[in-house]
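Design job #97: recover the sequence.
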């Protein structure tokens, strides 16, 4: 034991980083940039619980909603780079917002150290039951027959629902009218009574209405069919081979966090994401566990940033 401590002391004196030797020795906070109850929060809590077990220290979810995720992102970016603040970033905070807003209080690339891509979650395209189109091909045909007549709801300009719909119109070559709402609830209420024609939504948020026959699911937006809606085809199956949209969630730390600490968190997160119980919990939340290296996650962020830049530019998406 004495020799081991002496060896560690020598390493530290030589300038090697010894911070991870006793990391973590206090609770870790995981900042979620949205309120409780949504997809981000659900994924964070599934992962935080088991990550705490792996690291032998509590991982406490801290919700910091506001400004479309910017408040939480800034809080995380400005925190000490010591491994005791983590951030659950996603397509909104890391890819969409930087392309929508000219001034953000954080830089999605420079202010964070990517650790691991946690999960992805497709959306679902739904229409109200009396709507004339019964599948994606008939929807496209109907929209092309009468351009500008069919509309779609979203929970606001620049939202994931808005972006998914813009991607659909661009790739299918149809003209749909955007009807933005202040939140999911009013958009869903109007869709249920046919005041609007269709909407893209997270699966978990809308699956009760689908199962009750109050809405008809035409397609999901992921690479493959969703476990919660196995009978619903993907948009690729329905004739749009390049279509892919939805949410994704990843774990990041403030820039400058020591590499040995990042590696320790990445390894622990990898073990968490291979647990069948965790993967099943994520499926129940409409998500799929991903994992991978920090370098792969960094490349994913860059790729998604560029992809969203093209979608937002070509779709002429602007904030109010």
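Job complete. Output follows.
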């Amino acid at each position: 034991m004495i020799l081991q401590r002496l060896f560690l002391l020598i390493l530290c004196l030589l300038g090697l980083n010894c911070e991870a030797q006793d990391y973590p020795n206090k609770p870790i906070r995981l900042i979620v940039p949205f309120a409780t109850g949504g997809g981000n929060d659900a994924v964070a809590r599934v992962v935080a619980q088991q990550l705490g077990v792996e690291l032998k220290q509590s991982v406490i979810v801290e919700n910091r909603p506001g400004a479309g995720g910017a408040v939480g992102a800034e809080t995380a970016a400005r925190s000490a780079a010591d491994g005791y603040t983590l951030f659950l970033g996603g397509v909104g905070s890391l890819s969409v917002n930087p392309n929508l807003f000219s001034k953000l209080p954080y830089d999605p690339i420079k202010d964070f150290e990517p650790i691991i891509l946690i999960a992805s979650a497709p959306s679902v395209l739904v229409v109200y039951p009396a709507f004339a189109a019964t599948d994606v091909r008939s929807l496209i045909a109907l929209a092309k027959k009468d351009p500008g007549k069919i509309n779609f709801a979203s929970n606001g300009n620049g939202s994931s629902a808005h972006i998914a719909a813009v991607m659909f119109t661009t790739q299918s070559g149809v003209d749909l009218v955007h009807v933005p709402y202040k939140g999911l609830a009013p958009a869903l209420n109007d869709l249920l009574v046919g005041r609007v024609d269709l909407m893209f939504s997270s699966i978990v948020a809308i699956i009760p209405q689908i199962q009750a026959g109050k809405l008809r699911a035409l397609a999901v937006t992921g690479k493959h069919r969703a476990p919660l809606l196995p009978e619903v085809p993907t948009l690729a199956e329905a004739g749009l081979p390049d279509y892919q949209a939805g949410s994704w969630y990843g774990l990041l730390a403030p820039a400058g966090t020591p590499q040995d600490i990042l590696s320790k968190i990445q390894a622990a997160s990898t073990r968490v994401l291979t647990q069948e119980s965790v993967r099943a919990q994520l499926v129940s939340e409409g998500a799929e566990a991903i994992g991978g290296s920090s370098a792969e996650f960094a490349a994913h962020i860059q790729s998604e940033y560029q992809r969203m830049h093209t979608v937002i530019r070509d779709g002429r998406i602007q904030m109010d």
